[in-house]
Q: What sequence folds into this?
């Protein structure tokens, strides 16, 4: 006999009938009609090929075969209920191993300092952070959630949520601008040294774009330096190696300290978003929700809970 969900449903109805002592009381417990309970029991009897209940207008009782069947299945139902309660408990409490694939620059600049506090708040969580260049197969790699900049992959296997929308800035050091002049329009970048950042998806440099009030300029630039690490790019830029494009989040301290100067403030509209990417369409677990709440607080201490 192959298993299907109707068999389990029928067993649940039979159990309610036996425990309550009547079809009517079982119907009230299950939120069904009396006739619906009767049909469910009849379908179960047809499915297993035996009569399970002796019933009259005044009484009902298990047949001998029905009693043996009932005694066999009731422990199984109890195990199912216990397993469901255990699963509910695990999803409601923040515990277990949490494997996160996170953008390395975002981890260093926004999350690393707060990790002791997160682990202290959730002592039953074991946190495993990976910093890879691009998102691979989350399911195969056992990733609970990935934090990545740029548009998330289009796949029915993934769900995503935008956590942050940050500006793209063009920056240079005061020393570079003193030696080579301050460009007043993006088109002048053709005459400047630019530092290119490698797109890990295409293995090519990100194009340089400038957005303002619906207008988009794509500016060709040349370089003697290409990097795949944002921290290295910003240090080289602050050291005077050239002009760079970066995201505002994580760069604020260098700008506030005067080590980097923002160019072209009249072109402020290019944005870059951070997404949380999940390996399924199901709601994330309690430990993932807790981690994302921590991320939102790191981005903006006044942000709402996840």
A:
């Amino acid at each position: 006999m192959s298993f299907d969900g109707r068999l389990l449903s029928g067993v649940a109805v039979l159990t309610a009938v036996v425990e309550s002592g009547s079809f009517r009381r079982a119907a009230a417990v299950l939120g069904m009609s009396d006739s619906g309970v009767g049909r469910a029991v009849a379908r179960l009897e047809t499915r297993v090929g035996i009569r399970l209940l002796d019933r009259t207008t005044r009484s009902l009782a298990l047949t001998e075969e029905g009693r043996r069947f009932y005694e066999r299945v009731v422990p199984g139902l109890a195990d199912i209920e216990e397993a469901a309660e255990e699963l509910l408990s695990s999803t409601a409490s923040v515990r277990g191993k949490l494997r996160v694939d996170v953008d390395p620059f975002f981890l260093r600049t926004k999350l690393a300092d707060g990790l002791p506090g997160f682990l202290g708040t959730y002592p039953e969580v074991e946190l495993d952070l990976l910093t890879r260049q691009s998102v691979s197969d989350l399911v195969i790699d056992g990733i609970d959630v990935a934090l990545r900049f740029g548009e998330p992959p289009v796949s029915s296997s993934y769900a995503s949520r935008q956590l942050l929308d940050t500006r793209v800035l063009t920056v240079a050091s005061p020393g570079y601008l003193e030696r080579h002049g301050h460009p007043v329009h993006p088109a002048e970048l053709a005459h400047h040294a630019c530092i290119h950042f490698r797109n890990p998806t295409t293995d090519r440099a990100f194009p340089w774009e400038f957005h303002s009030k619906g207008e988009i300029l794509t500016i060709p630039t040349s370089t003697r330096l290409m990097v795949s690490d944002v921290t290295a790019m910003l240090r080289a830029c602050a050291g005077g190696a050239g002009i760079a494009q970066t995201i505002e989040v994580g760069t604020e301290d260098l700008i506030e300290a005067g080590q980097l100067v923002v160019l072209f403030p009249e072109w402020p509209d290019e944005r870059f978003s951070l997404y949380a990417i999940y390996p399924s369409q199901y709601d994330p677990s309690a430990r993932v929700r807790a981690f994302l709440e921590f991320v939102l607080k790191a981005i903006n201490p006044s942000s709402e809970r996840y």
Remarks:
- The chain has ten helices and 14 strands.
- The CA atoms of residues 7 and 218 lie 63 Å apart.
- The domain at 5-91 is CATH 1.10.10.10 (Arc Repressor Mutant, subunit A).
- The chain has two domains: 5-91, 94-305.
